[in-house]
Protein 1
Amino acid sequence: MLNTLSQISEKKGQQYLDNFLSQELIITEKIDTYRILFENIEGTIRFFKKDNTPINLIERVLSDLYEDAIDEIIILIGETKLPKDHVFGLYVVPNDRPIRIPYNNLPKYILTDVSRKEDGKIVESFGYDEVKDWASLLCMARPPVIFEGKLSDLQKNELLSYDRKEYTDRNNLSEIITNLFERTYSKQDIIEGIIIQSKDKLAQITSYEFGILDEAYQKNSTSRDFYDIILINLCSFMDKYNIPILESDNSDSLYLAIICDIFNGYCSMFKLDESLDPQYLNPPSFGHFGVLNKRFIENKETLELLEKSQVYESVFKIMLASFRKYKKPYGLLDESIVQKFNTYVYLINNYSNKFMSLNESVIPKIMDESRSDNIVIDAVKKRQPTDIDNMRVIASIQKTFQAKFSDVTKGTQKCGIYITSFCPFTNSQMENVRQINNMWKVPVVLVAVSNKYKIDGDRFKLSDDLIKAEMKSLVDGNRDLFAAFLMIDSWNLVELFEYCRPDYEPMVLITDTDKKSEMTLQLYFEEEVMGGRINVEKDFNIGEIENKDRLGGMRSIEDGNASHFMEVTPKMVHNYYDNMMNEYKNWNGRVLNIIKN
């Protein structure tokens, strides 16, 4: 927040203020509209809100306010090469009343400032001339300048008197600026304020009239009881909700998919009153705030529900916004409800790999009591602070609601689990199985993750039937190493134990090299946060071993190199080479499938 002239005088003295006002100055009008920033980050134009938070997928779905700006600014930039260390700030004026003050004929995009960053921090703000040059280059309006030069004594005194509330007549700031400089930028009867800039210093004068206008808008707010009731009902719904198997290219789209699934289930459990005025479910908004942007919603059931009435859109927006951030007790939301709701906030963001820092004023202090004496859990606690610390906070919350599970039926025969990828199964993986067997002296359960839920893309995947055939041949041909094989829907620890028990009790789980941390987090969550739902053995461990032949096995299929395939895979897999080649040819289009009417 910029200091006003009177604040500068109080903090740094009248002499400092006099020196500031005696320099060459540029005075611009503050426009009551939306401000966004953009910059070139590794060749991609990225957009940010005025508080420097990214305008990500979720922000764009919550409101279509940013869509035109994002699309049109990229077009305006065109082939212009933006320096990678420059940040561009601009006003966006979507219509004649963006927020509170109505405007006539303002440009849609007004470039206000250009800055330079080093190590993520602004180190330099460029002068008016350079900003004007960039505005011309980007086909945007110039900064809203109403004066450039040195102030006269009369102008200084008039501005200082207004800022210090020493005026006795009825002139408002817009009239004063018009009298002093012959114009305002917007030509409106009320302006938000002005910004005064020298080469390296900034100050502002805020408009008292605008403050009164803003206060009137703020008072025109509605009860949030209906909003709170939705959140309370959400807590009730989430008690019975299980996150489905979902995949996506990034955490934001995965988060959106989860919210769509929650919304669909919620609407089937709770009947929404379509006659309810949506204003009771929406936060106060002034002027043009945009509407729900359905452009990025792909769930057909969600889209059908959203078409029913505005109430459905409002409830969806509540869910989309609420599960991103931790809540504080307020209104109908008492501390116990908030703690429970924040648990679900954490679970959803953890699932979508979008971890958020916790605020001690929102969540109770971490309790160091442990639910499990497992060696993996113990090792995790000794590490440096990570997302595990957030889980420990959630664990302390869950202890209020759940007791430790004590009736979990364990398996009768000890085993090891090797959960790995198959494309194809290689000699290196077979050697990994032998290491597990030798080190822990237990038979190995061979596990594959189904490909049927994975999104089709650039990477070739074997069919589930072919993977199962591989596993059956491997187990049948190596009864001394393998106890069994199974295919599960995802890298899910609970599912693994459910399949193994009651016949087998896992003592170790070995994964591919990029999965150990994920499985460790799941173990911590299940044993500490959820009260021991798996109830693993004390010595149960998690590790990872690299599949050194993985690339060679995949390349032998891509290149159609049968001899190399035989070199890098066990004999039990050799018979499936032709089948794998056929699936690969179908996948990359070498073999056209016949379309039947």
Note: DSSP finds 23 helices and 14 strands in the chain.
Protein 2
Amino acid sequence: MQTSESFSRLPVELRLQTLAYLPLSSLCTLPLVSRDWKDFFDTNETTIFRNAAALHRFIPSSTTPLADLWSIYSKRSLIDVDGWKSFCRRRLYIEQSWSGKRPSTVTEHHATGTAVQRIKVDEAEGYIITTSKMGGLIVADLVHNQVLWSLPRDYVPPFTHCEYGKGYLIFDRSGGAKELWRRAWDCQISPEMPAVSLPDNKQHQVSSAIHGLFKPWALLKMPMPSLAFRFVYPTLIVACWDQMYLWDVPTGMLIQTIAETQDGVATRGDINYIEVSPRHAFICGSNLLRIFSRELGKCVLDIPSTQFSFADWSYSLIPCNPLGTSPGAVLFPHDVVPESQHVRPPVNYRVIDQFIAAHVSACGSNLVALLSSSRIIVMYDFERAVRGEVEMREIALDIQLGSPSCRSKYLAFENGRIAVATEGGLFVFQLIFVDHSGGSTQREAPRLTVYRASRFGSPSLLKFISCLQMSDTGLFLNWDPTITVNRVRSETIFNEFLMQRTHYTTNDFNGDYFIQFETPHDPIPRTHRHRSTVLSIDFVPLNRDTE
């Protein structure tokens, strides 16, 4: 009490500066200490909780005005926010819900159609974009679950891949060209069309028939057949067999060509996925992950997929029980142990695996790559390895998400979170790296917590996931909502996966071991594989009563 009285005699500005270093958990208890503390908080609530929002990195700085929140966050994440205190309460709830400490809900978005192939989510504008295994494209309202706009099945081919960002929608046309559409109200604000790559009559004809949310913007004709494409505003990257083409989407202009992507010391192999950042381009090949410098226009780092170990820090999952999870929480923390416990072939042989996806952080410095064998590699500040300052394994984590005999399905990396779908489970995790910039030579392993969605535990359904997307407040995937998964049975199957010995087949001539993928038996009929729609796991409370 004496300490409290001494603190209360300090000038107001000094007290506020001191409180700016306290986390929300402490700020919530201080008003309960005494009447003086409560009065002080009531009088200075705006400053105290705006500083707390900055401390927790909910906002760019402590000078950010409240009105700017609606340009930073989506409307659904700001429901009932009327000041800095309610904003901090809402953000804290969302963070705790992602970590299984608060309830979360599963929502079926039936307006997205059936046989969903690809998903893109614009939470700020409130809609979901999907393409279908049967053809067509749908834009559905995220909240009201109704179709806002669509393109017919005979216009968008079956199994079409699509990309989206900042109001630009891109998808394949039969024949290899890429159609670019732009949100209609953005066209009204900035109506000047690209000077090159103009849309053709086919786009204008279908647009005049459906009017609405998007308008034709450009048609990009590829110099040669394309194998993969990826859009990270404002750049669209298209990979062909031995070249990559980079386009500026707002202008429709080809801005760079990177040649000889296949040749080099190591052969890249077939293309599984590509990624782009302002400084680099990435190709996930069947033999290696290849990183290119956009400035130099050449390969600067190869990471073979045949390595037994990719990092000094390796982790694997161990059996655990989701009992005791917060009531209503979809995610629960799953136990991990250092170093993989899975059986490896002899060291004089190679394991043949593949990189199937890679994503880079918004800052362009952190890289996450997914191997086919339920294995994820996280590279923190990978450019240090590119520059030769460190070995790649010194800045990487090697995480085995269950048995390597279960194939990986999809990877998402947004807002500092990583989500992975495999034939064994659905996982979300966040890494906290220790900053060694102060000169310390002692290396400390990053703190790792893995969360798993026990409700999504059927191998027969997990194997048909073709897309996984994350937003600030939700995780979206294609799933068959008509099937109820027995959680006890799914937990039993998953724990069997963890205890399963990895199967390898060998080719003695080359000395290579191939992982033998075997999805364990699960009695859900294959006829359900085309009934999937979009389900979301929502980590945002719908009203103040749930907080």
Note: The mean pLDDT is 86.
Protein 3
Amino acid sequence: MRLTLSRWQLLHGSEEPVENPFNVHAGLLSASIVGPDLRYVRLGKTELVQRVYMAVRDTQWNTIPASYTNFKHRINENSFEVTFQASHQYQSIDFTWQGTIVGDPDGTISYQMVGRANRDIVCNKIGLNIHHPLGTYVGRHYRARTKSGEISGFLPVQIERQRVEQGRLSALFPEFDWLSVDFEDFSAIFEFDGDVFEMQDQRNWTDANFKTYGTPFSVPYPLTIKAGQQVYQRVTVKVRTQQVMKSDKTPVRIFIGPAIGRRIPEVGIRSTLQDGRLTDDEKVLLKMLRPSHIRCDVHLGDANWPTHLKNGKEVSNWLGARMELALFLPREYHSELQQLFHALRETKTSPARVFVFEDVAYKDSAVRITSSTVQEVEKHVRSLSSETDVASGSDFMVINRDRPGPDEFDGIVYPISPQVHACDSLSLMENTAGQRETVKTARSFYRKKIFLSPVTISNPRGPFPGGPATKGGLPPEVDTRQASLWGACWVLASLKSLLCSGADAITYFETTGYDGVMLAKSMPSDPRFPSVPGYVYPLYHVLADLGELKESELLLSCSDEPSNAEAIAFRNGGRMNILISNLTFEPVKIVLDGVPLASIKSVRRRVLDETTFFEAVSNPVSYRSNFISSPMSEIIELSSLSTVRLDLECL
């Protein structure tokens, strides 16, 4: 079957074009307007605001998408004004609002929302949200004006525990209507009208920001907003500073340094029942990934669990990888647990590790796996091997809140998805930086092993920040970006975040399917998904590159614009390998620092972009061998959402 895609489908898996950003200035401040969002408010090169936007969340915390109309832009050299109308409609929710974003020559930028409920609405949240970027806010001194007076402190370096008080999530500090954050030579000032706001440490959900939002959790939810009721909020940001020169757009500088002295963690993939129908060619493609392990999910409450176990063993055997066994226990599991380990002993199978989870399909309340449960599983594991790790866990937010004791378990395990609060491509790419923050914080209180499994782009469990399922659409847990160039860039950015994090093992995606690395030939095609049976996805090649290079030394690599471009560098003897991704929808120029150009004997490069997309997905073996020899240039130009691999032979 021939694959025919538009340019936008190649780039990010959807026919919907991405909004071109309007770059604007308000006095000394620069910013971008992307559709209805205010993004990247900067003073010089210091980013003060990552994003300001409005969100409506239903009683399940799904974000209800809006339709936007009547955009008007007035952009001058040192000021701007953007106005538009928005409408959120889903089931009983019918809410419209007027948005106004204004930048003044005195260096003040405001985002205002004036809305109205067109019928009685029951929801969990309606209001403005401000993302404060980690790179500039972690550890900063703040002051805030609360109803009890002014308070001050420091934003946390480690991820603050997301406490639950009287059944409600809590904030970092009491709600406020004014906030000041101090930097070296200036302060960022935030003023709030129409409501009081509060701040959370979003790293608990692997986001890469502190989030300030309207309508604090002290207001009971769900909220009831009566028909005709008006909702008004405004946030204003400005700086207190001496005059600073504006920063012109310059190439992204990526510094490549010495070896970091840390091994590359084990990286594997999750098996599916579809693997039993793979062709020999498809098995070869999966072998080219060189996975360290294969995760096999076994739900002991499912009568077909022996089939899942058998499939996992077969897949790990023909890939030459160890099994990562994820056990999901129902309330009554003792007999099935004995049968499972009897089957493992009979086949002399000793998994690399065993995860112990409670099966949500068989529980009546949120009861966590106890230490005694894990100890019971561990007794069975020790009958197989003394080297198999036994781990348990939950979402990182829960682990960070209810931290395990130092002697509990051989390890902890938690999944990672960037789509808990946001679904737009820019936010999901930014959120990769939050992944390493979770490991750093976990390592601060837990000295045993840390496993990340699975790491996915989609969030299969919900809530869905892109909105609940719609008639005629793909299920909300399916993300078409999985099969796009964006997906390959996201994986590189995620790997950059996690390879140096201190994690012991990472499991990405699945072997096949919408959340896999390819669409197997035995699978049905869906015209809404930008791939056809038998094709790999672009992200396959990033994982395959890592598999080839996993025995190499990992080098230090730092980007001065990590939201625009990222790199991972390796060295093996006299060879240096560098993977670089342009994480944006615009062309990017990159300068490599720390690479001694005079000592380079030869350069081979392979590009994954719009021009090579079809060969990469339809004929991956040929594509992977198609390197081009070229001289090393001081400036590397990458097109939208492209990835380049450089193989350098050095003197």
Note: The chain has three domains: 9-240, 252-256+554-650, 257-468+477-553.
